[in-house]
Amino acid sequence: MRTVADAEIHRGLLTMSNDLGQYRTLRARVWRVNTPVRILAEYDIAELERLNDTVLELNREYADAQFQLAQANVKLRQREAEIVTLSLTDPLTGVGNRRRLDQALTTEISRAQRTQQSLCACMADLDHFKRVNDTYGHEVGDKVLAAFGQLLRRETRATDIATRFGGEEFVVLMPHTDLEHGLATAERIRGAFASYRIEPMSIPVTASFGVAELGPSEQAEALIRRADKTLFVAKEAGRNRVVAG
Predict the structure, then answer these.
(1) Is it the case that residue 108 has pLDDT exceeding 60?
(2) How wide is the angle at C-alpha 113 spanned by C-alphas 110 and 118, nearest 5°?
(3) pLDDT over 90 for what percent of the chain?
């Protein structure tokens, strides 16, 4: 029969030692049953703490590894984007190269025909550029090309695609732009470039422009051909002018 003295007398941590003098801390229950004391040890606290510390350390190492992997992936994507950009950029002028133009023509013509939006192509050619190279050398000629590329980047919208077609010829694709606004953009670029002074040249270099608006069902080759023919008209008419095709 249970006596009054029979009861739980401790619940919690309990430090015990063995014959070798080794101590262990346990979570335990101690109670008295018919006078004798009985102890129930649930687990070793010290071992649990060591295990918990190990788990925490592993979690920290895993979190650090995940962070480093995420950072590496970000840098890798950035590098891949840089490589793609470089592969589509003319290194001298900073505008797109011929490959960029070909890609943009396919994309923008498809979009314009699908959405029934206007699209203009502006072709520009630097006037008497051979004379610049012959008179001042190719280093100055490169300065002129670089200056024109910089001007195109500054005077066009983020949605426009400025590219170097080859040599001293450039093409700017202008989405959502009709012929009237395309001509206005070309005229603004022409006027700005005519006011440039590039050392050591004593006279400005000018450019001629041909602008064509995409026709119904027209494809890339036909659009560029019309812009090129219009540019030829501008040069034949005296250069340093904008002509619509």
Answers:
(1) yes
(2) 110
(3) 62
Q: 24-49: buried (b, 16+ CB within 10 Å) or exposed (e) per residue?
A: ebbebeeeeeeeeeeeeeeeebeeee
Neighbours of 123 (CB within 10 A): 27
Beta pairing, strands 161-166 & 119-126: unpaired
pLDDT beyond 80 at 47? no
3-state secondary structure of 43: strand
* pLDDT confidence tier of residue 160, bands split at 50, 70 and 90: very high
Closest CA to 167 of 194, 149, 185: 149
Token representation of residue 210:
């041909």
- The neighbour count for residue 99, using CB atoms within 10 Å, is 13
- For residue 108, indicate whether it is catalytic: no
Residue whose C-alpha is closest to residue 122's, from 170, 157, 89: 170
Q: Which residue in the list 168, 187, 218, 221 is annotated as catalytic?
A: 168
The per-residue pLDDT for range 170-207, each reduced to its tens digit, is 999 999 999 999 999 999 999 999 999 998 998 889 99
Surface-to-core class of residue 198, CB atoms within 10 Å of its CB (0-12 exposed, 13-18 middle, 19+ buried) = middle
Is the CATH number of domain 98-244 3.40.190.120? Answer: no
Q: Tell me which residue of 10, 45, 51, 13 sits closest to 31, measured CA to CA.
A: 10
| Domain boundaries along the sequence of the chain | 7-46, 98-244
Distance CA 92, CA 149 (A): 8
- d(Cα 27, Cα 15) in Å, to the nearest integer? 9
Tokens of 212: 């064509």
